[in-house]
Design goal:
mainly alpha, two-stranded antiparallel ribbon, about 55% helix
Length: about 80
């Protein structure tokens, strides 16, 4: 697999082979968008913790119980 990366004055060009599945490209693009957004955030760790607790408290008990059935959320 040949991946080429070129940088010009105002952009980066990434050339990928057409054998890559589109879903993996979408996941990569989503990750880059996430990094861009997070990089501009002024939220502190305390802000994130407070928001997380607020969202968790607002979730209805039936939703939390359903999520607990999944391995990813067993510690809710």
């Amino acid at each position: 697999m040949s991946v080429q990366i070129e940088r010009s004055d105002n952009k980066i060009i990434i050339t990928l082979p057409d054998s890559i599945e589109p879903i993996y490209l979408q996941q990569g693009i989503s990750y880059f968008k996430f990094i861009d957004i997070v990089g501009e955030s002024k939220a502190t760790d305390q802000d994130i913790e407070k928001l997380s607790k607020s969202v968790k408290a607002a979730m209805a008990k039936p939703i939390i119980d359903r999520l607990k059935e999944l391995d990813e959320f067993k510690d809710l």
